[in-house]
Amino acid sequence: HKERKALERLKDQIEEKRRQADEAGRKRESILQGIQTLDERHMRYRQSHQDISRKLRKKDQEIEAINAQIARLRQGVEERQEAILARLRVQYMEGRFGHWKPLLASNSYGDFQRRLHYLSAVSERDYGLLETFKSDMANMQAAERQREEARLGMVAYKRSTERQLHDINEVKKEKKVYLTKLTDEKES
After folding, report:
1. What angle do CA 36, 40, 43 make, to 5 degrees?
2. pTM higher than 0.85 for the full model?
3. N or C: which end of the chain has fewer CB within 10 A?
């Protein structure tokens, strides 16, 4: 009678251990599935990080090109500014009616026509210089705006990369926790 009771208890214990083993097996499967999901997420983040890094390098190249363009435009603007200032100095030195002096000194109608043509050409040149100067200034400002937009875009990419990297690190931590749990389950 005593032995039968002991045997019943032993059978109950064995049944309980079997249930626990089944439960541990189910948990193990769940943990393995979780690890697989994390691996997939980790792969996606890594791919995304590589894409962002490529885009950052491209933005760097864009900014370099824009900087070179701005340097060229600035040089052109400075040269034209010098030319305009030189013309204005000449006109100032000639006085307010300096343009008419050569016309008044002309000997004949033909000479008068030639001198008038020369003066109008000079005026057109001054006007052309001013227009080119204004156009270059506008181009330079547009290029600087473009550079600023590219820089802001780069900063946004950089922040995005940092967020992605942070997420990858979090995934790695979660993975370690899962692996530790899995080891504990197997041991028990």
Report:
1. 135
2. no
3. N
